[in-house]
């Protein structure tokens, strides 16, 4: 993919560059930052993460599985003690709860991996080690016809380095 | 999430929510954070000496275990009627230690307690290694340890299943879930920091290892968006899990018809004790760490003061539980129960009970003094007393009950042998070996979260000395954004 990457040292410059790029109808913008920042999140305005769906589905599956295991075991190998029911839901709630947490947590992580597209084998075009250190990066997809315009926006908003990447 | 972008003139610096109440005036910029925290990864002679000592202790424990397997469990001081001894005491002790890490990383995260930011990584590592240590003890306690997997419900050729109404089976589910979830939570939080190490590492082999562990993390907005949300949900899952795990451990005792054990107070009593002992161990680890790595400007006196208040609070909850136990026995009218508690405090086990009461109830009251809460030497000394006191708390719970049950023929004594002591020593060696390896391979503090506290560079305020003048929005106003 062809585009332009700009490196910034200041947070507000980065936000201004994102806003101007969006105003000029650049659609594919990726921001790199050493830490999550609300200002960048708001400038990108990407909407809430869908990780919550994985959490809910995983949690419900874990809960059902956690009740099903002891009920099936008790039914298969009944231990009748003191006239109590073979399948007693009260003690099985412990196993149900633990498996809800276990499978819910693991599916949350799986959801995060799927949505954030990790693990990835190679770092993508435009990534620079300084973005994990202290600088901010704005990568914008732009064909040859718009790369000059994108570079100009990034420079005007305070990018300390701008380069074309493909 | 808000979608409106304010005009440039009105833009203000907005503190990130989880770290909102924390300030690190000694940390000026992101480069300093990377330099100082990544700088802790260089091994020193002192570190090698400590690691060697830990491995030696572990080897003593392993060789003693081999001796015990050859000789049988009798070598470990088990003698009827006391058939649960130091191993079960130490199992509960290490599970308890493992609770503070998740309390600090998950529960305090949900409560937006900023002081957790600089201490949670070391506490999480402590949790994972403590639960790994605890998990060894039920196996050490088995006469045939190679049959430990019989507790897991798996399809076997005779189709015999464990009893799911047994607290021991609940324990298997609870401990394995806790180990898996706390290790996952620990690793997920590490990913962005490992990416920092990957980008700064010069050694090609270490760089490749860090690159594999960082999973190709790039710090992009898409990754941060899903990461922060997943972290929040993991914290929300881990919070009730912390409370459930030690409740389940307490059921190992409370479900039995044994004097002193069969009590409904046990789950909250155990949970409070676990958190209290875990905070004690956090002090034992964090205070030397901040001194030797020269990180006093990260783990500030204010952070230690806040953690000490939490320690004082949990100590008082634990103290209340001790007194409630006595009161319940006194008011029950049950002579066996009353005799048991009398025997615990003024009879056969008086020495152990008073070590417990003084270390866990009396000495922590010193934390009402602000001067002592801010004195690191006292906090460290107190943490050692708390560790000792909490080990004896579990001793006092396990041994006196089994040695003084309903009938006189069930009364007896208990004397741990050198086998018990060596394996206890080995468990400390195992725990500290992992912890020492961790602090030289991975960052002991969360680099990305500390960067959230540090003021970012701002075009309107090039002069760093004015950074704190930037207007900060009240963080509580952001809670309903998404």
Low-confidence stretches of chain A: none
CATH level 1 name of chain B: Mainly Alpha
Weakly predicted, low-confidence segments of chain B: 1-6, 462-482
- SSE run of chain B: HHHHHHHHHHHHHHH
Mean pLDDT of chain B: 88
The chain pair with the largest interface is: A-B, 77 and 76 residues
How widely separated are the two ends of chain B? Answer: 4 Å
Q: How would you sum up the global shape of chain B?
A: globular
* Total discrete domains of chain A: 2
Tally the structural domains of chain B: 1
How is the quaternary structure best described?
Answer: heterodimer
The number of helical runs of chain A is 6
Q: Structural class, judged by helices and strands of chain B?
A: mainly alpha
Fourth CATH level, the homologous superfamily of chain B: Formate dehydrogenase/DMSO reductase domain
Which fold name fills CATH's third level, the topology of the largest domain in chain A?
Alpha-Beta Plaits
Number of strands of chain B: 0
Average pLDDT of chain A works out at 91
